[in-house]
Amino acid sequence: MAEFTHGEGLGLLLKGLRNYVSRQPLIVSFETTLSCNCNCRHCDLGGLIADEVRMTPKQYGEYTAEFKPPLVQLSGGEPLLRDDIVDIVRAVKTAHKPTYVILVTNGALLNKDIYLKLKDAGMNQLSVSLDFPDARHDDFRRHRGLFAHLESTLPELAQLGFGDIIMNTAITRANMGELLAISDVVERWGVTISYSAYTQLRTGDPEYMISTAEDLEALDGIIESLIVLSRSKKHIANPETVFRDTLKYFHDGGMKGCSAGVRFFVVMPDGALVPCSLHREKYKTQREMVADFTSRNTCDSCYVAIRSYSDKSMWRLLSHDLPSLANRLFSRYIPSQGA
Residues 40, 141: contact at Cβ < 8 Å? Predict the structure, then answer.
């Protein structure tokens, strides 16, 4: 079932084109809290933060109305730790229409009740992290029972028929041999998957980076298999261009041309603007951030999902990635009732 009408989809496209030309963001990512109920091995967050300064739902709406991004991402930390997360979703959804709202979660607190409340408030896409196709996911996230919870919850939610759940797998040295197996699990659950690249910027730990000639050769074969699979399997969301750019990132040891601060940026829980979740110099305005950070930014050390879908030329976006986005909007992957 398609959530967006063709008119709303056209509105998103026009908003995106306007923002691209005027150097306004295509995506604003709100880190709703830095608290998290996981302590993931590839992340610098984990644990609960007492007395964290947090914006109100109304302020989230005000920021969305100011920057008018076509896409808003709500993440953390873990956004489901906030008892007002439904109100936040509603605030950003209605602040400046049309807005496509994505919520990113580790899924530990996910259930049918909160999912339906988020849907009713206007959530368009639920993104759930998945690192392994089995209980090794628990060890990587340092959260016992997490994989079993996802395995019981996500098929139930998928059967509701919204087609809006997408797993996000960061490709690391630890899990690259499991990428095809993860795809099989996700297909069995009846949801979709998007692969992105790990970066050591968060932790400074190169253990999970793919860099040796042997590992890169193995990754080449795995990604080629995923590309072939994606041509016949609707549950794999990555366009081929993103797969190939991800390979380039690993082979080159980086990806130049980052436009953090312009095409995308992050709003912290207290309302401060930062260029991205990996560079947390705080600014009061986007203009100040662009002048001080973006204009001299030479960082090439990540190719996370938010970059891979927004950090491209107009021609690449229109000719390659827009068709994939349109497919996500209007022809969603819905599992059969017997899946």
Answer: yes
